[in-house]
Amino acid sequence: MNNKAEARRFAVLEAFKSDTTTNLSLSKGVENESDLSDLMVELEMYSKRHLDSGIYLDSYTQSFRVSHNVMLISNYLDSLEATRFERYVALLVKIFGYNLTYATKASHDQGIDFFGVKAFELFDSPRKSFLMGQAKKYNSLVTVEEIRNFAGSLFLMRSREFSQAKATYSSMVTRSFTPVEGLFATSYFFSPPALKLCENSDIICLDFVDLVLLTEKAILKHDLEIEVNDVFDAVKTDAELDKIEVLR
Question: What fold does the segment set 76-247 form as a domain?
Answer without folding.
Answer: Trna Endonuclease; Chain: A, domain 1 (3.40.1350)
